Sequence to fold (520 residues):
Amino acid sequence: MAESDESIGENKGAGGVQPGPAIILVEPQLADNIGSVARAMLNNGLDDLRLVAPRDGWPNPDAEPMASGATLVLEKAQLFETTREAVADLNFVMAATARERDMSKRAYTPKGSAIALKLRHAPDRKTGVIFGPERSGLVNEDVILADGIIHVPLNPEFSSLNLSQAVLLVAYEWYQLGVEMPTMRTVTQSPAPSIEAREYFLDRLDKELDAAGFLFPPELAPTISKNIRNVFTRAELSDQELRTLHGVVTALLKHQSDDG
Amino acid sequence: MAESDESIGENKGAGGVQPGPAIILVEPQLADNIGSVARAMLNNGLDDLRLVAPRDGWPNPDAEPMASGATLVLEKAQLFETTREAVADLNFVMAATARERDMSKRAYTPKGSAIALKLRHAPDRKTGVIFGPERSGLVNEDVILADGIIHVPLNPEFSSLNLSQAVLLVAYEWYQLGVEMPTMRTVTQSPAPSIEAREYFLDRLDKELDAAGFLFPPELAPTISKNIRNVFTRAELSDQELRTLHGVVTALLKHQSDDG
Fold:
């Protein structure tokens, strides 16, 4: 198994890399799949691979055969313990998922995701796409982190893609869009906060709402918390807006304590 | 290895198949790849898989794990000894190849190929796409058979796709086009000849030209023959035109012998 193959095209080396979204694999199980993902990434000029708690540890030489020469991507791959840490420095992140989720997110096709990512790509902004483990897919907690979800329209009776095939379609649409729109203007609104900064605010809000008795009854707390988080991730906050929201929370708390 | 995975979507069964191009794998080497191809086909509603002289014979139970439930595609797969036999009943066939070829063919991106195939798809017409063996790719003889070639625009420094990834991209673009243009009108010109009938004419022409001393000097004969074949495959002949061309050859031969 895991032989490389060259039926289509030629793999000269690790050149041709262009700035593009990071690919985040959450708890990948098979080294073959990690290798195939590296190959599919480099086929499309991507090289920022991030691994969250891969089952068999990292580095893993078993990933190399299927990478078929995309060794640089494997060597550069970063290891993280949690998805949240893996996306902390990014500014816009999407989650690939096919299952229906009980949450309100913008959903994109792979082509739509390429446009969404391109619009948010700039020298001072970083984007990424999160893919879940083989078999189980992403847990809700990871999907909540994301600014949008990617859904691949496929045969509804047989829609499960192999992990590296899913990465390929997203990376391929990204690359094709670059071919079609090489000079596409990026949106230059005010700076976007890192996902770490956004999560910091959402955690703070969670904590304060919990202390205020808003997350009640306890069995509904996760749902209430999830819904609030989705409102703020969907809003694509700027740095300035995030600071304002911190101020709003502080002001409300202060007002409350004045009353009390 | 060769574990199935369900990270994206759900594979319920073998439903959701729609009429579409046949996928022809020439001398595939790895059972894993044949399985992955079956999965990628059914993901996109295709089920007509044709195998030309697979290295490890057919049927091959080792293909099943990577098919991840696309067993029906494997069970229906047809076995052939030559590429020519595998495409004999089709009316329009494309070849996936990344290497530059010294021949004059129309070239398409995967998206372009989907449009080209769709335009030629009709109840009385059958289409197909030929993919070469891992590592070596298609031989020129197989490419000459094709009405057009498919080239995937990828990182020029790292453009070699895994076999099943190449099939996925072509099948995916086919399926997406169906989503975008479900009622696209098919071209209804006069009936198209089968590739078998076209090859029969080209072989006859070859033979007559050789007998007439046209394929000379011998070392250039293959090139001359190839160039002539490419003219006629590119022309997308109708049944009527093919009959006319047979008549032309017959008339010229008769005239020649009258002279002689």
Summary: The two ends of chain A are 69 Å apart (CA to CA). Residues 239-259 of chain A form the longest helix (21 residues). Chain A touches chain B through 66 residues (CB under 8 Å).
